[in-house]
């Protein structure tokens, strides 16, 4: 059966391993006498899969975390971006985020509507999604226009 290993092959491969010397496992102990206690799959895995060194606890970790900048130029760019974000007016940032969310919602709804019409043939449901997506686009445009008008009035007055 495919789930049970052939016993002749396992017996032949064990005698070949013992004649070449003792096998050393991950813990450094000789395992030549313990081979009979392990299953065929374990013996094959020990032969095919190399021992993986997961590191030494005594060695310091020299790898930087993903969030740390790799060089001075990246650190300077991150500092400049942080400074620029701090200088942005809260009203402008809020308007920007709301406009972006409205545009993304519009894209998502129009796409879902087109997929429903194309794959399911449900014109009413798909048309509803498309209509709501177009309303989201209109809301984003109206929010942009009103924010622009407010900024011009404050700046001009």
UniProtKB/TrEMBL annotation:
Question: Compositional bias of type Polar residues: which residue ranges?
Answer: 10-21
In what residue span(s) does the DUF7322 domain sit?
Answer: 86-146
Pfam families given in the database record:
DUF7322 (PF24008)
Task: State which residue ranges cross the membrane.
Answer: 95-117, 123-141
Keyword NAD attached: no
Task: List the residue ranges forming a coiled coil, or say none.
Answer: none
Q: Which domain of life is it from?
A: Archaea
Q: Where is the composition biased (Basic and acidic residues)?
A: 32-73
Tell me the keywords, alphabetical order.
Membrane, Transmembrane, Transmembrane helix
Q: Which InterPro entries match?
A: DUF7322 (IPR055746)
UniProt entry tagged with the keyword RNA-binding: no
Q: Where is this region: Disordered?
A: 1-77
Recorded protein name is DUF7322 domain-containing protein
Q: What is the scientific name of the source organism?
A: Halonotius pteroides
